[in-house]
Amino acid sequence: xxxxLTIINTNTRNQKIKDFFNKNKKLIISFLGILLLIIIGFxxxxxxxxxxxxxxxxxxxxxxxxxxxGNNSIIVPELKAVIEDKDxxxxxxxxxxxxxxxxIDNRDEINGLFDILIEKTFLETEIKNLIIYKKGLYNADNSxxxxxxxxxxxxxxxxxxxxxxxxxxxxxxFYFKDEKQKSKEFFNQILNTENANLDIVKETQKxxxxxxxE
Length: 214
Known about the structure:
- Helices cover about 80% and strands about 0% of the residues.
- It contains ten helices and no strands.
- It is elongated.
- The mean pLDDT is about 85.
């Protein structure tokens, strides 16, 4: 008797499964088709992404080789194109190369390229913070107080490992402008900053003891 009931229950369950599939056949086929398209699309995008990154790498390296060989006619537009591609690795490298080799004289143009990296490029947080610091460093000699503070505020108001670097830059900026009280305030902030760079802390203590002790 128990065996008969088991067989009946099994048959009933199997029939319900068949009925469910028959009733929802079109829906199931559509779902599987969409799932297949998603999988194909994902792997196609990965292949495209890897191929595009290789192309970008070649574009960057070829531009550097041309510059080293004395062919400067197209290096700036090529490196700008790499920056505008918004790649997390090659876009920052391209900007640093332009700056280090003084290939663009227009400061506004360089700042526009900095903003592409900072505002539009997907980067790890501390890499983005490093770029913000480099932008501040690049502008320090030609910016007024409010401009430099606007650039560096994201670091000053953060817990970034680059915070002490930004504070030190501002402290030195005010020191060389002979605004000693403002300079001292920023140096003191460094001493109260968690995880401040140890070399910067040492230089801060030297500056405070030697030049700002009064």
